[in-house]
Amino acid sequence: MAGLAGRLARRWCSGLLRSPLQVPALGLHMGGPAMRTSQKDFNNAVNQVKLLKEDPGNEVKLKLYALYKQATEGPCNVPKPGVLDFINKTKWDAWNALGSLSKEAARQNYVDLVSRLSASSESPSPEAPAADRKQPESDTLVVTSEDGITTIRLNRPTKKNALTNQMYHDIMAALQAASKDESVITVLTGSGDYYCSGNDLTNFASVPPGGLEEMARRGAVLLRDFVNCFIDFPKPLVAVVNGPAVGISVTVLGLFDVVYATDRATFHTPFSHLGQSPEGCSSYTFPKIMGSSKAAEMLIFGKKLTAQEACAQGLVTEVFPDGTFQKEVWARLKAYSKLPPNTMRISKQIIRNRERETLHTVNAEECRVLRERWQSDECMNAIASFLSRKAKL
Ligand SMILES: CCCC/C=C/CC(=O)SCCNC(=O)CCNC(=O)[C@H](O)C(C)(C)COP(=O)(O)OP(=O)(O)OC[C@H]1O[C@@H](n2cnc3c(N)ncnc32)[C@H](O)[C@@H]1OP(=O)(O)O
């Protein structure tokens, strides 16, 4: 029965990309995805599906179908097909699983999904020569590969490894390369006494010709793409937190598989102090990891956690004495890197895949909210205070 259902579903899915759901061609939206999806963006995405070079597989096609129905008709409003009507039941289940998701959110998710599919079908294949892959363009990020471990090291110690716009791009490129290289485990760490002091606040200092609104729009697109790389990273991802961590470097930890910290590390998300709101999917991962009230204390009130506290809350896997931190952690990672790579990838997939779409939705929503926050007086005043040296955390 399952085999028959699978075959029928496969046959149905193979026709889906050419189904009458699609609208006539419109111009292709290939720039950074807009944060508020217009009908035109949605129509473009529907059209873009037909141009995909690779078959995205049945699971994805079903997702596209469900999001399309939700975006155009709203929550599933038709009776459940009978158990023997395999094809329609599969479609119905996928649509119904979206519950009360709004039409706008479904449209946004559809556009996001298509944009990711388009990007991955255009990204260089693993066999592409290394020169074709984007390498870090400055020495603020150092990427090395040894003993089956690719290490991405933030290397701006005099600025506490604050993340410049270029560094976001370099980290994304490094993650993309690491996802395809020979290594088994990928590590993110920092140079010097800090792990990372979060977003470089001077990123906000140069306002582009389009003004604050354009700056916020660009920031939101960059942030969304950056966080998506962590959500989609296919291999075991480990944070080696060598010192204090602030802002975005803390929030994305919820997307890592393992987090090792020195006992000198602290974990600080001072969003309210900065007139900003949570990102890195922390509005979803933190309550899940530590419970809603502990998450609220961090994300709303900006409570700074010690490494031991972060470990007790489940954000950190294990804390090591600073004196032996590097030695112990790297010895551990080298041993783990000898484990069978495919098995580890598959285990990660089974742990993470169920939540991937949810995380993309959360990420898009957080970026939409932040885009507005970045244009608020509260945020502008906080950043002006830091830049004029009046404020420090
Ligand atoms: C597009 C994507 C956007 C994603 C958004 C993410 C949100 C966040 O990440 S919010 C968090 C933002 N980070 C901060 O607010 C931290 C600000 N920095 C500080 O409060 C302090 O510098 C510190 C507590 C991290 C360290 O204090 P300490 O006294 O030990 O050292 P300093 O003398 O202050 O720092 C040395 C040097 O580094 C500069 N610096 C440190 N952090 C940042 C930063 N985040 N942005 C820009 N510059 C930073 C600091 O100004 C000093 O520079 P000078 O030597 O030139 O004075």
From TrEMBL:
InterPro entries: Acyl-CoA-binding_prot_CS, Acyl-CoA-binding_protein, Acyl-CoA-binding_sf, ClpP/crotonase-like_dom_sf, ECH/Chromodomain_protein, Enoyl-CoA_hydra/iso, Enoyl-CoA_hydra_C, FERM/acyl-CoA-bd_prot_sf. GO terms for cellular component: mitochondrion; peroxisomal matrix. GO terms for molecular function: delta(3)-delta(2)-enoyl-CoA isomerase activity; fatty-acyl-CoA binding. Its EC number is 5.3.3.8. Pathway: Lipid metabolism; fatty acid beta-oxidation. It catalyses: (3E)-tetradecenoyl-CoA = (2E)-tetradecenoyl-CoA; (3E)-octenoyl-CoA = (2E)-octenoyl-CoA; (3Z)-octenoyl-CoA = (2E)-octenoyl-CoA; a (3E)-enoyl-CoA = a 4-saturated (2E)-enoyl-CoA. Residues 118-129 have a biased composition (Low complexity). This is Enoyl-CoA delta isomerase 2. The gene is ECI2.
